[in-house]
Amino acid sequence: MKNSSIILIIVILMAFAGCKKWLDVNSDPDTPQQPSGGSVLPQIQASMATSLQSDGGLYVAKYTQNWLTNAVSNNNTYDLQGYVFSGGTMASAWGMIYNAFGLNMEYLLESSAKNNQNDYIGAALALKAWSYQYGTDYFSDLPFYEAYRPDTYKFRYETQETIYRVVDSMCKAALVYLRAADGDPTNTLAKGDLVYGGDIQKWKRFVFGILARNHNHLSKKSFYNADSVISYCDSALTVVADDYCVPFDATFNDNSNYFGPYRDNMPALRQSNFIVHLLDGTILCDSTVSHKVNRDPRLAHMLTCSHDTTNGNGGYRGVDPGAGDPFSALNPPEEYYENGQPPTSDPKLTNYNNARKKVSIAFGDSLYVNPSRAAFGSQGKYLFKNKSAFPIMTAAEIQFIKAEAAFRKGDLGLAHTAYRNGIRLHFDFINRDYSRVRGSFSLYNINPIQQDAITAYMDGKNVKQSPATLTLSDIMLQKYIALWGWGFVETWVDFRRNDFYDPADEAAFGNFMSIYKGLYGGTIPLAGNNEGKFAQRVRPHYTSENTYNLDEITRLGILQTDWHVKKMWFSEP
User: Fold this and answer.
1) Strands 244-246, 269-271: parallel, antiparallel or unpaired by DSSP?
2) What are the pLDDT digits (tens) for 316-354?
3) For residues 318 and 67, what is the distance between their CA atoms, to the nearest angstrom?
4) Cβ burial, residue 199 (10 Å; 0-12/13-18/19+)
5) Per-residue confidence at 288, pLDDT binned at 50, 70, 90?
6) Cα 174 from Cα 185, distance rounded (Å)
7) DSSP 565
């Protein structure tokens, strides 16, 4: 996917550079001088998932404790809220915005305007708005107005406040074009749209979802308007068929799920104790008694368990930041595995019984090594399959945004309804028939979650049964579950705007821990370069900005050692 994006950028640059004579004689249909929107859009959509997975999954997911590193005596920098400012670390998001989208997006907008293709213009503006929303929540200030100015290597950055307003404006412009395209028989968006197949109604719902995120992120601002957020949610994604999920064909490395066993990008990552205890009932029911009674039926579909089931929790285990897997030193040598499974007995493995207590890899229960590296197939679990579609936005998330806005407004009845709708929609998300999304694999484990199990959970202790008992913590913890494994940056936004900052600020941090109770099982380990604070932002691309745009990033203070622990604009009052 990345190589083809680079090739496309070269084609575009040549077209703008005045190579007309050469292009006139180049009539090879495999290398068109003016690519159609239907050939440009898929490259842009595909880059969304890979960027979120590579930067979000390998780094930000550790900040939010989706998963952590399994090494014993673990001092992984990102597990400890640290950051390494060098090379291409955490730079895929930058590459997506300014390379994979970049000139491809500008070309798509320009060519679509020339051809009066309102459908493509609307979709392109929607995706551009999404990319800058994602980018500013990740990096803070960004180049926008000068981002593609020709004949220069220096670009002015706009403030995060400005980017937020720009996103709002682009979304509203996208809606104008999408409405103009609605019902137009000349629309050709279906030819290039990997996600929605050209469905204009779903594109409009996606845009409203971006607006809902944009406005809800401002919950700490005096001008936060809960009614606007609720209104945007009401026009956004409503059912799982509206979910924006990027599919993977899984025929070779670059068109396979980044989290799948073929690409093998997660060999050292293990689910956290935080997500385990959210799903086993420990946190939401405030009890460690009888895990079977309070266990979430989603647990067996989202997480993996070990061979050893003597912990009273069916073998479901996780790791804590700074601790890793306490049993990983007892891992049986890989040569003893057969077809990805440990042997049932072997005299050479004297500590095998203890070794079985390890936290399993994400690809399957009782697996501690990748079962199918360099081989395609149906192996894997939940979002961690070669052909699992990857979510960018879901209807469940929208309902939790609505629930939070209603709660902040004081409308507990509406908040409670949206909260319960969000939970049910996440069950639907797991149970959805994804074969209709370019033949994607299902997310559920063997069979869908049965309705009686869903009903029992919804009527049980994990879910608040009345508006009067609902808390902000209930909403945000269920949202965390629904976004686990994919919505890393959104979860990170939620953390940061709820006082995820300085443990020395007891009042603020106490508020955060009252919402995300159970996030830390004991002491809070932090990396040495964090000044006792949590990570707040990522620096721009090291090579491009340090080499060519040094004056601008110096002006902004990006080179200061404490840049990554400074609060974002959206998280300040």
Assistant:
1) unpaired
2) 999 988 887 866 544 555 555 556 665 555 554 444 544
3) 8
4) middle
5) low
6) 19
7) G
pLDDT (average), residues 480-485: 98
Structure-block tokens of residue 65: 């404790």
Q: Tell whether the model's pLDDT for residue 505 goes beyond 80.
A: yes
Q: Give the pLDDT score at 12.
A: 34
Contact 99, 143 (CB under 8 A): no
Lookup: tokens for 256: 């396979």
For the segment 241-263, the average pLDDT, to the nearest whole number, is 94
What is the structure's pLDDT at 6? 33
Give 352-357 contacts, CB < 8 A, sequence gap 24+: 353/308, 354/327, 354/330, 355/327, 355/330, 355/331, 356/306, 356/307, 356/308, 357/306, 357/307, 357/308, 357/311, 357/317, 357/327
Three-state SS annotation for 402-428: HHHHHHHHCCHHHHHHHHHHHHHHHHH
Cβ burial of 348 (10 Å; 0-12, 13-18, 19+) is exposed
pLDDT number for residue 357: 59
Number of H helices, E strands in the chain: 22, 8
Residue 571 has pLDDT above 80, yes or no: yes
Cα–Cα distance for residue pair 445/384, rounded to 1 Å = 12
Q: Report residue 75's pLDDT band, with 50, 70 and 90 as the boundaries.
A: confident
Instruction: Tell me whether strands 390-393 and 157-158 are parallel, antiparallel or unpaired.
Output: unpaired
Angle CA(507)–CA(220)–CA(469) in degrees, nearest 5?
70
Q: Are 235 and 205 in contact (CB under 8 A)?
A: yes
CA 289 distance to own-chain centroid: 33
Tallying the residues shown for the chain, one arrives at: 573
pLDDT in tens, 128-181: 999 999 999 999 999 999 999 988 888 999 999 999 999 999 999 999 999 999
Position 366, amino acid: S
Q: Please compute the mean of the pLDDT values over residues 468-489 and round it to a whole number.
A: 98
Nearest-10 Cα torsion for 403, 404, 405, 409: 100
DSSP string, 177-239: HHHHHTT-TT--GGGT-TTTTT-HHHHHHHHHHHHHHHHHTTTTSTT--HHHHHHHHHTS--S
**Contact indicator for 539, 563 with CB cutoff of 8 Å:** yes
- The predicted pLDDT at position 4 comes to 36
| 430 in Cβ contact with 446 (< 8 Å) | no
List the structure tokens of 117. Answer: 């293709």
CA distances from 386 to 193, 241, 251, 274, 391 (A): 21, 21, 9, 26, 14
User: Tokens at residue 142, please?
Assistant: 């960004």
User: Alpha-carbon distance 331 to 506, whole Å?
Assistant: 40
Which of 39-53, 111-125, 313-327, 353-367 bottoms out in mean pLDDT, i.e. has the lowest? 353-367
Residue 65 and residue 321 in contact, taking contact as beta carbons nearer than 8 Å: yes
Reference 135, options 497, 479, 539; nearest CA is 539
